[in-house]
Design a protein that fits this description.
Two copies of one chain form a homodimer. The first copy, chain A, is α/β, with parallel strands linked by helices. Helix content of chain A is 32%, strand content 23%. The longest helix of chain A is centred in the C-terminal third of the chain and has 17 residues.
């Protein structure tokens, strides 16, 4: 019996059934249903560095929706909010290696980091050269002893796009890895939740949020934020999100930023565009020039209402790679 | 003070502020902020039939997100769930006419139909040839005396894509209009809501839906459906939506269908792909062949949770037009 307001069958089979739908809707991809891996159908691509990512499900279109020309060669899907296992990652890594090596793009969560590390070691033993970039862009997390560092959130989309473009252009493993590291070093994010999502297998919201409150600094699995505040106008929310980002890294000067306003799953596009306007206003006031933008729901947290803002410092090279053609289910231009 | 779980400022300014964001995020469009019209920057395009649509806001990305090469020349935005006024439509019609005439694509709601009719008459008086196609694909509405016919819902996206492609290829006004009519004649839709959206200026949900129920046959403004039923597995929901569609029109044979699973604003992509799998299963059982598919949130109802299914009978010509290049904020391929 369904007791959640979700379009699902058995809560235990949400991920595998959604993957069936992905495969049927996108014949240009190859889905290994048993191992929950989505491949670019042309992988391994001769002469190209392989790019692999993955993580818990529930963040769609990340990562599977970013598999295709100019972005990922493979994405490993864990259960909802659950890391993929090392064997999945190893299998994907071997499958996309064309002899030029493979880059792992990993969001900074202990389970993800461990699975990708183990897979990288095993792949190396079988002769596949693997490098790894751990994305940790969430400024909401204040470093403390015993924490495992910042979480990987919205910037992951930009790392996958830009590193994917570098690989597509035929750059070598060292260069592709360097590009991914530069993106991670120059990008910061923060998010806000208005409501909590519900993990299907749990059946109740991850956290309780009163009708009058929002959680500023939310994680994409509903991890607690920096503070719980009363609902505020979008203009104030934009400041709550951008001020800590600008306090953390200088985004003025240079070739401007890529500004990414991301919906967390339950927030409609009309609100995201309204938020983008507020973000643009705050950035203009702060002397930050927007070079490119992206508005939409690209890294979500089930049906959570809310959004995140990501800024990335760019340069000529990063902008060219951002503008380069991409053809995936969720991101597509220039082809 | 904000009392809704929305990323907005003053509820009265949601549409105009979202349009500011649209303009800033999409320099490839021209937004007439005062008249709330989004234009393709190259309009009027010499030798091309102009294609204009519009309607109440709250359904984003429809219609403004479909302005661009291969789709609409202009979209007129009303306030949330409120028809645009005749003057807006007239202005847009004149602006995109390059002497080859203009097609109006109108969803079948009395206010929309009236505004577009008045604008068409006034445009004709000033020498612009205008034709009109009223989209009425929602099988949830059972015809009764005194009703104004079926509502226009998901099929509108397909009419805009396919008629837009016909215009882009240089077909004349009569042919472009004919293509739009064929799409409307061969397409049917039905939707289901799990939750209600909230109109910002109203401040409370449009309808009440108990935690255990769903509304089958919902309209995109929260109009009542065919029946209120207990929540059911996605496999059953797919049958609830498709059975009335198949009972209304024969979709077997021919060149197959375009199957479109659409999110209503608050439902995440993972559920839409899961639903797509169920839709594909039901169609296979019914002997309906899927030629193309589209999965995502393209015509929404604010943050309503739920989805709609649209089927369109195709032929060689319609499939070629569907596959033709399109470059808009929300739909983009082949360019």
């Amino acid at each position: 019996m369904i007791t959640m307001k979700k379009l699902i069958n058995d809560p235990a089979h949400v991920v595998s059934e959604a993957l069936l739908g992905m495969a049927e809707a996108h014949p240009e991809l190859r889905v290994d249903q048993h191992n929950k891996i989505i491949y670019r159908v042309s992988a391994p691509v001769r002469g190209k560095v392989g790019v692999v990512s993955g993580g818990g499900s529930g963040h769609e279109p990340l990562h599977g929706g970013f598999v295709g020309v100019g972005m990922l060669d493979a994405a490993c899907a864990g259960e909802v909010f659950t890391s993929p296992v090392p064997d999945q990652v190893l299998r994907a890594t071997r499958a996309v290696d064309a002899g030029s090596g493979v880059l792992h793009i990993v969001k900074n969560y202990p389970g993800d980091v461990m699975s990708f590390e183990m897979a990288a070691e095993l792949a190396a033993e079988s002769g596949v050269e693997v490098t790894s970039v751990v994305v940790d862009d969430d400024v909401a997390v204040r470093e403390r002893p015993h924490t495992v560092g910042r979480r990987g959130v919205g910037l992951t989309v930009l790392v996958e796009k830009i590193a994917g473009a570098a690989a597509e252009r035929g750059r070598g493993l060292t260069e592709v890895t360097d590009v991914a590291r530069r993106v991670n070093a120059g990008g910061r994010s923060m998010g806000v939740a208005l409501t909590s999502g519900t993990v299907p297998a749990v059946g109740r919201p991850t956290f309780e949020l009163p009708e009058t409150d929002m959680e500023v600094g939310i994680g994409i699995h509903g991890e607690p934020g920096r503070e719980r505040l009363p609902l505020a106008p979008a203009s104030r929310v934009a400041e709550y999100l951008i001020d800590p980002i600008l306090a953390d890294l200088d985004f003025t000067g240079g070739d401007g930023v890529i500004a990414f306003v991301n919906g967390l799953g339950g927030t409609p596009l009309i609100e995201l565009y309204l938020m983008y306007h507020e973000v643009a206003r705050v950035l203009q006031r702060a002397g930050v020039r927007i070079a490119r933008s992206l508005v939409g729901s690209y890294i979500t947290s089930l049906e959570m209402a809310g959004c995140s803002v990501t800024l990335l410092r760019t340069d000529d090279d990063l902008l060219r790679l951002w503008d380069a053609p991409v053809r995936t289910p969720a991101l597509r231009w220039g082809l």
